[in-house]
Amino acid sequence: MNSKEEQTNSEVTNLENESSIEKQEDVNYINKQNAEIKLDEKSIDFEDAYKFGWSNYSEITNGRFAMIGFLAIILIELFSQQSFLKWAGIL
Looking at the record, which segments are called Disordered (predicted)? Predict the structure, then answer.
């Protein structure tokens, strides 16, 4: 064999080694993602179930409506150029 053939063979071997390392890293990354997805699916199933009373679902829903209400008060004060209490006729 001449030196060019040996060099190309060694380059091919290096590329194969690098690709196998990348594949192993990809497999590990995919396995980690699958584990995270499985955990997320379990938590989604648990949290999305509506229960009457003090539950995680109720607290999230109430918090979202409170944020919408607070934003509405801020927008009313910005557009009307007066306080919300005065705009509502309370003061």
Answer: 1-26
- Backbone φ/ψ region at 62: left (φ over 0), alpha (ψ -120 to 50), beta: alpha
Model's pTM, two decimal places?
0.44
- pLDDT tens profile 36-54: 666 655 555 555 566 777 8
3-state SS of the chain is: CCHHHHHHHHHHHHHHHHHHHHHHHHHHHHHHHHHHHHHHHHHHHHHCCCCCCCCHHHHHHHHHHHHHHHHHHHHHHHHHCCCHHHHCCCC
